[in-house]
Write a sequence for this structure.
Protein backbone atom coordinates (compact mmCIF):
# COMPACT_ATOMS: atom_id res chain seq x y z
CA UNK A 1 0.00 0.00 0.00
CA UNK A 2 1.25 3.46 -0.84
CA UNK A 3 -0.42 5.79 1.63
CA UNK A 4 -2.60 5.98 4.72
CA UNK A 5 -5.38 3.50 5.41
CA UNK A 6 -8.71 5.27 5.85
CA UNK A 7 -10.55 1.97 6.19
CA UNK A 8 -9.56 1.85 9.88
CA UNK A 9 -10.67 5.37 10.71
CA UNK A 10 -12.42 8.20 8.86
CA UNK A 11 -10.04 10.73 10.37
CA UNK A 12 -6.33 10.29 10.78
CA UNK A 13 -3.93 12.56 12.63
CA UNK A 14 -1.46 14.55 10.57
CA UNK A 15 1.74 16.04 11.94
CA UNK A 16 3.01 19.10 10.08
CA UNK A 17 6.76 19.62 10.40
CA UNK A 18 8.71 22.57 9.06
CA UNK A 19 11.00 21.12 6.43
CA UNK A 20 13.76 23.66 6.91
CA UNK A 21 13.96 23.89 10.71
CA UNK A 22 12.57 20.49 11.73
CA UNK A 23 10.16 22.22 14.11
CA UNK A 24 6.88 20.40 14.68
CA UNK A 25 4.30 23.01 13.76
CA UNK A 26 0.92 21.47 14.53
CA UNK A 27 -1.25 18.39 14.58
CA UNK A 28 -4.59 18.26 12.82
CA UNK A 29 -6.73 15.67 11.03
CA UNK A 30 -7.54 14.61 7.49
CA UNK A 31 -10.35 12.58 6.04
CA UNK A 32 -9.88 10.89 2.68
CA UNK A 33 -11.21 13.90 0.79
CA UNK A 34 -8.81 16.29 2.52
CA UNK A 35 -5.94 13.92 1.81
CA UNK A 36 -6.88 13.70 -1.88
CA UNK A 37 -7.09 17.47 -2.13
CA UNK A 38 -3.70 17.85 -0.46
CA UNK A 39 -2.12 15.52 -3.00
CA UNK A 40 -3.81 17.26 -5.89
CA UNK A 41 -3.04 20.86 -4.92
CA UNK A 42 0.29 20.49 -3.14
CA UNK A 43 -1.11 22.54 -0.27
CA UNK A 44 -2.16 21.01 3.02
CA UNK A 45 -5.91 20.64 3.44
CA UNK A 46 -7.16 19.30 6.78
CA UNK A 47 -10.61 18.31 7.96
CA UNK A 48 -11.81 20.55 10.76
CA UNK A 49 -13.48 18.47 13.47
CA UNK A 50 -15.08 21.51 15.10
CA UNK A 51 -16.49 22.88 11.86
CA UNK A 52 -17.07 19.47 10.19
CA UNK A 53 -15.72 20.59 6.86
CA UNK A 54 -12.57 20.76 4.80
CA UNK A 55 -10.08 23.22 6.22
CA UNK A 56 -7.74 24.63 3.62
CA UNK A 57 -4.97 25.70 5.96
CA UNK A 58 -4.28 29.39 5.47
CA UNK A 59 -7.60 30.11 3.78
CA UNK A 60 -8.18 33.05 6.12
CA UNK A 61 -4.70 34.02 7.25
CA UNK A 62 -2.88 33.36 3.96
CA UNK A 63 -0.45 31.17 5.87
CA UNK A 64 -0.75 28.14 3.60
CA UNK A 65 1.44 25.06 3.98
CA UNK A 66 3.22 23.93 0.84
CA UNK A 67 3.78 20.18 0.79
CA UNK A 68 7.43 19.19 0.50
CA UNK A 69 7.18 15.47 1.31
CA UNK A 70 4.70 13.04 2.86
CA UNK A 71 5.37 10.05 5.11
CA UNK A 72 3.07 7.52 6.71
CA UNK A 73 3.75 5.38 9.72
CA UNK A 74 4.07 1.64 10.29
CA UNK A 75 0.35 1.28 11.05
CA UNK A 76 -0.59 3.52 8.09
CA UNK A 77 -2.85 5.48 10.43
CA UNK A 78 -0.83 8.66 10.90
CA UNK A 79 0.73 11.07 8.42
CA UNK A 80 3.83 13.22 8.72
CA UNK A 81 3.99 16.05 6.20
CA UNK A 82 7.06 18.22 5.79
CA UNK A 83 5.98 21.67 4.71
CA UNK A 84 7.08 25.10 3.77
CA UNK A 85 5.03 27.29 6.10
CA UNK A 86 4.15 30.46 4.25
CA UNK A 87 4.05 33.50 6.53
CA UNK A 88 6.25 31.77 9.07
CA UNK A 89 3.47 30.90 11.50
CA UNK A 90 1.23 27.84 11.69
CA UNK A 91 -0.67 28.67 14.86
CA UNK A 92 -3.83 30.76 14.86
CA UNK A 93 -2.47 32.48 17.95
CA UNK A 94 0.34 33.90 15.84
CA UNK A 95 3.11 31.61 16.96
CA UNK A 96 5.39 29.77 14.60
CA UNK A 97 4.34 26.43 16.11
CA UNK A 98 1.19 25.48 17.99
CA UNK A 99 3.48 23.87 20.58
CA UNK A 100 4.64 27.17 22.05
CA UNK A 101 4.01 26.25 25.67
CA UNK A 102 6.50 24.14 27.55
CA UNK A 103 5.45 22.30 30.64
CA UNK A 104 7.35 23.38 33.71
CA UNK A 105 6.95 20.78 36.46
CA UNK A 106 5.96 22.27 39.77
CA UNK A 107 4.95 25.61 38.25
CA UNK A 108 1.41 26.89 37.87
CA UNK A 109 2.05 28.27 34.39
CA UNK A 110 3.87 26.92 31.38
CA UNK A 111 6.84 28.66 29.82
CA UNK A 112 6.14 30.34 26.49
CA UNK A 113 8.95 29.19 24.22
CA UNK A 114 7.60 30.04 20.81
CA UNK A 115 8.15 33.05 18.67
CA UNK A 116 5.10 35.19 17.97
CA UNK A 117 5.15 36.01 14.28
CA UNK A 118 1.87 37.88 13.92
CA UNK A 119 -0.88 39.44 15.97
CA UNK A 120 -4.05 37.33 15.59
CA UNK A 121 -6.25 40.41 15.94
CA UNK A 122 -4.67 41.86 12.82
CA UNK A 123 -4.91 38.68 10.77
CA UNK A 124 -8.33 37.40 11.72
CA UNK A 125 -10.36 40.55 11.58
CA UNK A 126 -13.98 40.57 12.66
CA UNK A 127 -16.25 40.33 9.66
CA UNK B 1 -3.46 25.77 32.81
CA UNK B 2 -0.14 24.03 32.79
CA UNK B 3 -0.60 20.89 30.70
CA UNK B 4 -3.01 19.00 28.48
CA UNK B 5 -6.76 19.06 29.01
CA UNK B 6 -8.12 15.55 29.45
CA UNK B 7 -11.62 16.87 30.09
CA UNK B 8 -12.17 17.16 26.33
CA UNK B 9 -10.98 13.66 25.48
CA UNK B 10 -9.85 10.61 27.44
CA UNK B 11 -7.05 9.99 24.98
CA UNK B 12 -4.83 12.63 23.47
CA UNK B 13 -2.29 12.19 20.68
CA UNK B 14 1.37 12.48 21.61
CA UNK B 15 4.14 13.21 19.12
CA UNK B 16 7.56 11.89 20.11
CA UNK B 17 10.43 13.82 18.55
CA UNK B 18 14.11 12.96 18.84
CA UNK B 19 15.65 15.83 20.77
CA UNK B 20 19.04 15.58 19.12
CA UNK B 21 18.12 15.10 15.46
CA UNK B 22 14.67 16.68 15.36
CA UNK B 23 13.29 13.55 13.66
CA UNK B 24 9.66 12.81 14.39
CA UNK B 25 9.78 9.28 15.78
CA UNK B 26 6.16 8.24 16.31
CA UNK B 27 2.67 9.21 17.31
CA UNK B 28 0.79 7.39 20.05
CA UNK B 29 -1.78 8.23 22.73
CA UNK B 30 -1.91 8.96 26.44
CA UNK B 31 -4.71 8.91 28.93
CA UNK B 32 -4.39 10.88 32.13
CA UNK B 33 -2.82 7.96 33.97
CA UNK B 34 -0.16 7.45 31.29
CA UNK B 35 0.59 11.16 31.35
CA UNK B 36 0.96 11.17 35.14
CA UNK B 37 3.29 8.18 35.01
CA UNK B 38 5.38 9.85 32.30
CA UNK B 39 5.82 12.93 34.47
CA UNK B 40 6.65 10.86 37.52
CA UNK B 41 9.17 8.48 35.94
CA UNK B 42 10.72 10.67 33.24
CA UNK B 43 10.13 7.88 30.75
CA UNK B 44 7.38 7.99 28.18
CA UNK B 45 4.35 5.85 29.00
CA UNK B 46 1.57 5.69 26.41
CA UNK B 47 -1.88 4.13 26.52
CA UNK B 48 -2.19 1.33 24.00
CA UNK B 49 -5.54 1.54 22.24
CA UNK B 50 -5.27 -2.00 20.84
CA UNK B 51 -4.37 -3.55 24.20
CA UNK B 52 -6.40 -1.11 26.33
CA UNK B 53 -3.70 -0.74 28.91
CA UNK B 54 -0.71 1.39 29.83
CA UNK B 55 2.16 0.89 27.41
CA UNK B 56 5.52 1.62 28.95
CA UNK B 57 7.40 2.28 25.73
CA UNK B 58 10.39 -0.05 25.54
CA UNK B 59 9.05 -2.50 28.12
CA UNK B 60 9.77 -5.40 25.75
CA UNK B 61 12.47 -4.07 23.46
CA UNK B 62 14.37 -2.03 26.05
CA UNK B 63 14.09 0.97 23.73
CA UNK B 64 12.69 3.36 26.31
CA UNK B 65 12.16 7.05 25.65
CA UNK B 66 13.71 9.42 28.17
CA UNK B 67 11.74 12.64 28.48
CA UNK B 68 13.77 15.76 27.71
CA UNK B 69 10.98 18.34 27.46
CA UNK B 70 7.21 18.45 27.09
CA UNK B 71 5.08 20.90 25.10
CA UNK B 72 1.34 21.17 24.62
CA UNK B 73 -0.48 22.90 21.84
CA UNK B 74 -2.81 25.89 21.63
CA UNK B 75 -5.90 23.72 22.14
CA UNK B 76 -4.22 21.74 24.96
CA UNK B 77 -5.31 18.55 23.25
CA UNK B 78 -2.02 17.35 21.78
CA UNK B 79 1.39 16.78 23.34
CA UNK B 80 4.85 17.06 21.82
CA UNK B 81 7.55 15.30 23.80
CA UNK B 82 11.22 15.64 22.96
CA UNK B 83 12.98 12.44 23.91
CA UNK B 84 16.24 10.62 24.03
CA UNK B 85 15.42 7.38 22.24
CA UNK B 86 17.39 4.59 23.88
CA UNK B 87 18.53 1.94 21.41
CA UNK B 88 18.18 4.36 18.53
CA UNK B 89 14.89 2.97 17.22
CA UNK B 90 11.32 3.88 18.13
CA UNK B 91 9.49 1.66 15.65
CA UNK B 92 8.59 -1.93 16.42
CA UNK B 93 9.65 -2.75 12.87
CA UNK B 94 13.20 -1.82 13.81
CA UNK B 95 13.35 1.56 12.13
CA UNK B 96 14.55 4.70 13.83
CA UNK B 97 11.21 6.40 13.13
CA UNK B 98 7.79 4.91 12.49
CA UNK B 99 7.57 7.29 9.52
CA UNK B 100 10.00 5.32 7.38
CA UNK B 101 7.83 5.21 4.28
CA UNK B 102 7.67 8.19 1.97
CA UNK B 103 4.77 8.55 -0.40
CA UNK B 104 5.81 8.56 -4.02
CA UNK B 105 3.02 10.00 -6.15
CA UNK B 106 2.21 7.84 -9.14
CA UNK B 107 4.09 4.83 -7.79
CA UNK B 108 2.52 1.65 -6.46
CA UNK B 109 4.93 1.40 -3.56
CA UNK B 110 6.33 3.95 -1.12
CA UNK B 111 10.02 4.67 -0.81
CA UNK B 112 11.65 3.34 2.35
CA UNK B 113 13.62 6.25 3.72
CA UNK B 114 14.28 5.15 7.26
CA UNK B 115 17.25 3.47 8.74
CA UNK B 116 16.69 -0.02 10.12
CA UNK B 117 18.43 -0.20 13.47
CA UNK B 118 17.41 -3.66 14.64
CA UNK B 119 15.79 -6.84 13.40
CA UNK B 120 12.34 -7.18 15.03
CA UNK B 121 12.62 -10.98 15.05
CA UNK B 122 15.66 -10.71 17.30
CA UNK B 123 14.13 -8.17 19.67
CA UNK B 124 10.59 -9.46 20.03
CA UNK B 125 11.21 -13.14 20.42
CA UNK B 126 8.32 -15.57 20.51
CA UNK B 127 7.45 -16.47 24.05
Amino acid sequence: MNGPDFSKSDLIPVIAQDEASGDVLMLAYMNEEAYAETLKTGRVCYFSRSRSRLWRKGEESGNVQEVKSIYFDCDADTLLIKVNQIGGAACHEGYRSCFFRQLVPGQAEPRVVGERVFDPKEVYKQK
Remarks:
- The mean pLDDT of chain A is 93.
